[in-house]
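Chain A, query sequence.
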Amino acid sequence: MGKPHVLVVPYPAQGHVIPLMELSRHLAKQGIKISFVNTEFNHKRVIHAFGKNVDDSGLLQLLSVPDGLEDGEDRNQIGKLTESLCQVMPRQLKDLIHMVNASDDDKISCVLADINLGLALDVAAELGIPTVALWPASMFQLVLNLSIPKHIAEGLIDENGKDPVLLLSGTPLMKDKMFRLSPTTPCIHPTNFLWLNIDAFPSTQKILFDFLRRNNRAVETADWVLCNSCLELEPEGFNLVPKVLPIGPLSAANRLGNLSGNFWLEDPTCMQWLDQQPPGSVIYVAFGSFTVFDQIQFQELALGLELTNRPFLWVVREDITKGRRHVYPQGFVERVGNGGKMVSWAPQGAVLEHPSIACFISHCGWNSTLEGISNGVPFLCWPYFADQFLNESYICDIWKVGLKFERGERGIIGKEEIKSKVEQLAGDDNIRTRAVELKQRVIKTVGEGGNSDKGHLDVWGVFISNYFCSADKSVGPVGCPAAVLLGWANLLASKRYTRFQDVTKPLMKKTIVSWLIVELLF
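Chain A, predicted structure.
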């Protein structure tokens, strides 16, 4: 039998590719062969940013499939992209799997896919290939998605839509009623349901609502379900869906390594600039890969940063403003001088780890949230869409490690509000203390003995290679390192791994017993 070979398929967006790439690199270190599948459009971007050598072991290869859109079509139109993926991706993935299996001695033995692309798991099931589903966002966001039937039954949202023209599904029926699933989870406004705040067009909202309901099936049907979070951050979320195994924060588990999978070239000069700044002085400003401002808001942000009279590092993508290239306020660049550093993309993990960083003005994407928390950096929250409003609630209301901006006329966050909130955060010792304490809890969870520690991932990786990737699922890993099997035995005995035991105990017992028999016989 050849090497275990896992096909990895993320939803084609930056925040989904990064955690799956992190997990893929970790599995490759365990000797598992990885075929990482981006869309052709994103594949070109990753190659441009990082080249083909994303893994020193040579076990991780990059593959691609079409997304069904033409050159020049806007991939930031999520509804259009999602609809196209549903039409073309199943056949493309099936053909790719057949092609790989025909040309590679190491047949694909497991499909690891983003729950947001549940169709990839459907293809694997159709071909009889074992499946692992990863949820790359917060556990509570998954809980909310899985609660759609409950919300329909309770009359919180409409299932089928009563408008004969729009046929909109998932419409909030009580738009002013805030709710929460438990005292330790964020409070939710119905208009912040995931499918409602990605796009204002009702037709797109319907596409996404139906897509989410389809993807929810993956939690039931996948052999394993993983989440890029941890019990320390979201205990109640994991209690509500016991099948899901916490393995995050993936970014925290590997924050000393270079992240692969970014779509933009990183500007390394920002690290040299940070080295020149005093400890705890720099405002880091970054809004991920999707946030777009109008020119008025962009200029207010620039002027607000200037008013703080503090050094700042600002990630300004080429496409960060609507319609045309961003224009700084007149004289802004000259006035801030070396006190402000603007780059098109930054190595965010390294930036947030730098001792000069004081706070993080963030869009609150889940990867950014985990990276800020993992480095004890307080937040100023500026959510844009999708799950970012939920993450803002976690940051400000549950963990209390950040502040929210207040919007003024026309929904603009003004320069004075930016200056005021920076000063308020800088003067709040309690927020900084809580941020450091939360960092320590996260470090503990990815450290030895924690719920998401590296040893846990090592064990899981070897388990995948010797259970999913073995022809006989009852036979253990002959030649498997004794240290790993002892790790399995420790997991079975450890109260810290109750959730891991529930999922794997029967299978691990078979594996350990078979190994012991082989050792005794040979």
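Residues 162-167, 252-257, 471-497, 504-522 have pLDDT under 50 and may be disordered. The chain has three domains: 5-248, 269-444, 454-521.
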